Amino acid sequence: MSVEARSREGLPQIAFRNVEITYPNGAVAVEDISLDVRAGEFLAILGPSGCGKSTLLQAAAGLLGVSQGSITVGGQPVGRRTRAGTPSIGYVFQEHRLLPWLTVAQNIETVLAATTIPKSEWEHRITEYLSMLQINHLRDRWPNQLSGGQRQRASISRALSIDSDVVLMDEPFGTLDEVTARTMRAELLEVWKRTNRTFVFVTHSIRESLFLADRVALFTKGPASLIETIDVDLPRPRNYDGPELSQLEGEVVRRVLQVWGSE
């Protein structure tokens, strides 16, 4: 079922039900998380570094199994997979993970080759999404010829190219300088609007989460569990330095200090 159809029927695009994840050494990474992500929504997962946010995201992509509970995407159970990038899920890591011996366009081709998308459509998709991220002119460059921001744009283009209904993003701007990160946050929101995808964005930055998201899922320190979801009732487009965002950030900071500081 498409994102549009699921949205009309009010069905969650992603459903986490009592999810627990325990590592082989017995350490608990994620503890009893239940959360719905609506179709077409931009959801941010906010938690301190090392709390288990990325572990949960990897489980949603099928890169990790769950110890208890279930995760469904598009109404279908998520099974363990050997890689991200199925026709329903795109994944953007904190590191770009572009293959250094391939050009930008060839990196996207490797993902398209793992799908059932006809090869006759590949060129159109590569051009469309590289243009959307404003780097089509860099399509024949090697990753080591790109800046950090350009590499992440290529990585996002790769995740979008497979027509993924869901795009999972694991702190994709965490290694960028703040000026570049600001530009890319605004660009990402334009991509989200144009593509009508469901985005789940992991971050430990309160302001970043409030600028981007419709809702923010606030997690505890590790093992990760859900404290609450916060509706970001600010009109779009939002001013990253505006008083409304600053006021809401202050309220969330006070809440975070209560729950993270008391654990």
From TrEMBL:
GO MF term set: ATP binding; ATP hydrolysis activity
Taxonomy, superkingdom: Bacteria
UniProt KW keywords: ATP-binding, Nucleotide-binding, Transport
Domain annotation ABC transporter: ranges: 14-246
Official protein name in the record: ABC-transporter ATP-binding component [Pelagibacterium halotolerans B2]
Source organism per UniProt: Mycolicibacterium parafortuitum
